[in-house]
Amino acid sequence: METKCGVTMMNEQKNETSRLNVRSLNEECGIFGVWGRSDAAQLTYYGLHALQHRGQEGAGIVANNNGHLWQERGLGLLSDVFRDTSRIEALAGKSAIGHVRYATAGSNGLENIQPLMVNFHDMQISLAHNGNLTNALTLRENLEEEGAIFQSSSDSEILLHLIRRSKADKFIDKLKEALNIVHGGFAFLLLTPHGMFAALDPHAFRPFVIGQMPDGHYIVTSETAAIEVVGAKFVRDVQPGELIAIDDNGLTIDTYTDKTTLNIDSMEYIYFARPDSMIYGVNVHKARKRMGAALAAEQPVPEADIVVGIPNSSLSAAAGFAEASGLPNEMGLVKNQYIARTFIEPTQDKRERAVRMKLSAVRDVVVDKNVVLIDDSIVRGTTSMFIVRMLKEAGAKSVHVRIASPIFKFPSFYGIDMQTTEELMGANHSLLEMTKMIEADSLGFLSVDALVKAIDLPYDGEGTGLTTAYFDGHYPSPIYDYKASLDRFVRSGEVDFVPEPVTTYHPRQVASLRHQELLSDGTIHLDSQTIQGVEI
Length: 536
Known about the structure:
Layout: E1 2-4, E2 7-9, E3 20-21, E4 29-35, H1 40-50, E5 58-65, E6 68-75, H2 78-81, H3 85-89, E7 95-101, E8 116-119, E9 124-133, H4 136-145, H5 156-165, H6 171-179, E10 184-191, E11 196-200, E12 209-212, E13 218-221, H7 224-229, E14 233-237, E15 242-247, E16 250-255, E17 264-265, H8 266-272, E18 278-279, E19 282-283, H9 284-298, E20 306-309, H10 315-325, E21 329-330, E22 333-335, E23 343-344, H11 348-358, E24 359-361, H12 363-366, E25 370-375, H13 382-393, E26 398-403, H14 425-428, H15 431-437, E27 442-445, H16 448-455, E28 466-467, H17 469-472, E29 474-475, H18 487-491, E30 496-497, E31 524-526
Parallel strand pairs: 17-28, 20-21, 20-25, 25-26, 26-27, 29-30
Antiparallel strand pairs: 1-2, 3-23, 4-7, 4-13, 5-6, 5-7, 8-9, 9-10, 10-11, 11-15, 12-13, 12-14, 15-16, 16-31, 18-19, 22-24
Helix pairs in contact: 5-6, 9-10, 9-16, 11-13
């Protein structure tokens, strides 16, 4: 089983060999929601546009018009789905949630495009999800045995079934009960006729933030970049285990569990998030520059002439490496900005052609130069090989690859499309073998300790506050349905799992949140026109 952006893929893994993404890593999704605005759907469109990097194969928006939910969704880029302006116009109402997603083979049907929407006899519910549930297979099988009928292969749909089966009287209590049953990485946005709800998993694997428009109305979204785009002001990061309720009375921050830790996915800082986003007080661009500087200190290239970053996510790290090493930071590669993510047949010539469609070497910049090529990560290694080959064909004297993250050795289970060790070059080859495979003159990676220091999360609780399991094998939670896939690494002592938390993480363990005022019951109550209760 694989789960990609909330899509459970059972018995479909063989289909994955039929096509391959030329970019090795894919984020799961981006989500955006707003309550109380007459232009809610249009605002959601703009917010999702800022999150397009988090998912490019499907998009959808659901609006609440006087208690009636209406859905528009489709395959492709956001601009493709809503090219017909009548689709946005059909989304009348003062509240909306939206979703952009990444899809893989076998899971790219319209039925899996979110937000999902269900119509019960007494209410409608819409749901958008960023992340991956690690106990989805077990829950789905149990629900189906009890008579549940699923309309999609999405693990996100599981939460809707759990909510409906709850015996609690109030919707908020039904939702809390369901959230305590699912495990893994999740940032959920739910829209009902009466309110909008946001919930983050007990580890805060995925980024999730609250903003406020100048008129006082609230938005909840995946990254602060989307807050900036719509002209809102950042209020706070959603905390692990929190349940945010937004309605006409304002915003209430509650919790569905007090058993929490902080384990932000380090890949958000390394690759996924926009460089202009802030995650728990850390600017992504600055973190990447520090990664590049640390890489220059740990993996120098004494004979280098120039530094070249792979557009676009590696440019910040390249700037940091060049600055720290005193080398020119040159534009030796140019990206074609008009080509979206492309799936191709996994043959060498077609893969290489796809890379050349996206990237071009600037011959006059790299010819007769010893080049330091900076990338954020190596997963399968095929793209790296093609880029190294491209630079050498353009006349580079040598190409020394430096990676601004540690070696990928283990899969991700919390919301990234990387869930088998078979596809990880670093899990199956030595450093020397990898160097030869990508045809580089040398290859170096950032250490885990240097990565954590470079991110510089202002955190003083237990652990680092980050998830680095892909590099060091220390998973911050059980992985349930996926555990068998790592049994051999557990037996060899390379992988271990921390039990689910039994203590409470407190926001004051993050320096940027220490002045936040909590009420005695652990909640924060905000007036819809101000941000009182939260010190910015």
